[in-house]
């Protein structure tokens, strides 16, 4: 009997806004949110996250990781790397969250969604505003995304914020759109 892989969506933010937004959206869209394991920065071990992913009741499983500005491979990215190497897990996409950090961490992405909900080919900043002539996103926890050959990476501004345009009271439409596109294009176990 073939074991189905757990489908995972990586969210590169773990602050309180991100936790509340992803918990809310997981109830709306479906899936299992592991926000209780997230923090800013990530404190749980890769093994704890993998165990929780394996035990999740519904796909996709939303994993929030955050390096809180730590350069290189921080705790959040160690979780990402472990999930990418786990034979029972399939990362179907990532929501790459922009940050103000100028620590040279960046990633290419499939496309971005600005704070008006428009799909754009250029990067966005933390507020979800277009960054002209840039095809990569700066962020705290995006260093490894570029190296893992994920099926889809969507760049957005700061989850639950973006001048109130992604507020949970409005249904967090920008983050929701990013997740829905990842699910729509998500990998298959067939």
TrEMBL record:
Pfam family, one: SpoVAE
Matching InterPro entries: SpoVAE
Listed name of the protein: Stage V sporulation protein AE
Annotated organism of origin: Aquibacillus halophilus
């Amino acid at each position: 009997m073939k074991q189905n892989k757990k489908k995972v969506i990586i969210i590169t933010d773990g602050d309180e806004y991100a936790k509340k937004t992803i918990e809310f959206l997981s109830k709306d869209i479906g899936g299992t949110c592991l926000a209780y394991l997230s923090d800013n920065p990530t404190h749980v071990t890769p093994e704890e996250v993998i165990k929780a992913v394996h035990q999740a009741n519904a796909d996709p499983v939303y994993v929030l990781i955050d390096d809180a500005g730590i350069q290189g491979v921080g705790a959040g990215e160690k979780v990402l790397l472990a999930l990418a190497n786990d034979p029972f897990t399939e990362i179907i996409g990532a929501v790459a969250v922009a940050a103000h950090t100028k620590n040279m961490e960046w990633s290419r992405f499939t496309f971005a969604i600005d704070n008006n909900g428009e799909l754009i080919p250029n990067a966005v900043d933390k507020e979800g505003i277009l960054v002209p002539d840039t095809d990569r996103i700066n962020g705290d926890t995006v260093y490894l995304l570029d190296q893992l050959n994920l099926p889809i990476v969507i760049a957005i501004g700061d989850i639950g914020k973006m001048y109130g345009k992604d507020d949970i009271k409005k249904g967090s439409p920008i983050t929701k759109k990013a997740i829905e596109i990842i699910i729509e294009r998500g990998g298959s176990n067939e």
